[in-house]
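Two records follow; treat each independently.
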Amino acid sequence: MQDPRIKKMAQVLVQYCCKIKKGQFVEIVAGIPAVPLVKEVYVAILKAGAHPFSRIVVEDLEELFYRHANNEQLQFVSPINRYSIEKIDAMIALRSPLNTKNLSGSDPKKQALSRKANHVIMDRFSKRAAAKQLAWVVTNYPTEAAAQDAGMSLSEYEDFVYRACMIDQKDPIAAWQKMSKYNQRLIDYLKRKKTIRLAAPDTDLTFKVGGRKWINCSGEYNFPDGEVFTAPIEDSMSGKIRFTFPAVYSGREVDDVRLEFGKGKVIKATAAKGQDFLHAMIDMDKGARYVGEVAIGTNFGIQQFTRSILYDEKIGGTYHMALGNSYPESGGKNRSALHWDMICDLRKKGAMYADGELFFKNGKFVK
């Protein structure tokens, strides 16, 4: 018997997250394990009067690509992807990893080359989304691999996922609307501020946000969601930061990342594990050493690290930043094929100041 939460989640993804309307062209991108959710999303799109089509991803193909592709193939940009990114009205991405480490043995230089070439697709996607021409949402379907990464059984992980997504609540949409109001209070305070300072163990970081737009993330793009973010002024990041949790990217886990900034740029980067991979990624292109996003996690239904950035960056009471590409809707101008989120926990010994005024202490908004 199918878990009834799957159908409920599909309805929220279609009705609340993407707000699918009659006549729209909607792409569903998913891995094979997510087929039960794909079917429910497909039906929900049809009931909304829209036109669904699905693209089922075979996970191992990406690893095979990086193993066997030559330079010409690595830099090839699919005309099908170019076409679809212009034609779709919405994209619903359902991640469902069978092996979260399947790219851990892939050459990082090959990954960087391919990502750089295909940045044109990501850039166009970002611009259409910022212009409200394209709705999108990404979520995870619970799998054994993801549960193992999180240190849980599959049933425990399923409960965690649906709780984080507030599917366990009687009215999930009302719960997300409540989070939106909390986020907006934080934004209403921050939007008048020019300079932010972050203080935590081995961390003292300052950056400017004056003139940039803070975005309220309450379930309409990432699912689950729960953050407010903006883009810092590109040359303003100064100081040092030590990230609390391992930084996970393309199946690689980089431990104890420490960054030092000068005039907005990473001038020193170290890690206890995976330092070579870290350096390969931040040397991907000119924008990779600059910060494209700064954010505060506001989902207090997520309290544990799971090695999935979709959940971890939303942990209530944390700060995260992304090296690389910024989102146009925030006013950010940094462009890169990289967008790598890293998390600093502020729940025990952390504070944030806006124009010299304490507003966030030990994981809580104090204004």
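The next record belongs to a different protein.
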Amino acid sequence: MIKYKIDVLNTLKNKGYSGYRVKKDKLFSGSTLQKFRNNEIVAIENIDRLCYLLECQPGDILEYVPDEENNTE
């Protein structure tokens, strides 16, 4: 499964993107912010924007962790 390595909202806040600023500047939709809160994976376009804002690569944000259900060995 793909999961976040970081607390997205807290990392945005530390980079100067408060919840107020994210909403005011319409950087992410309300549903995307809710997905970040719930540690749900978002669309690639949002990962792209997140990488731009945080000045990082997708691998700095996401990681693959094998889960029991998908283990075929």
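Discussion point: The chain has a mean pLDDT of 93. How would you locate this feature using only the token line?
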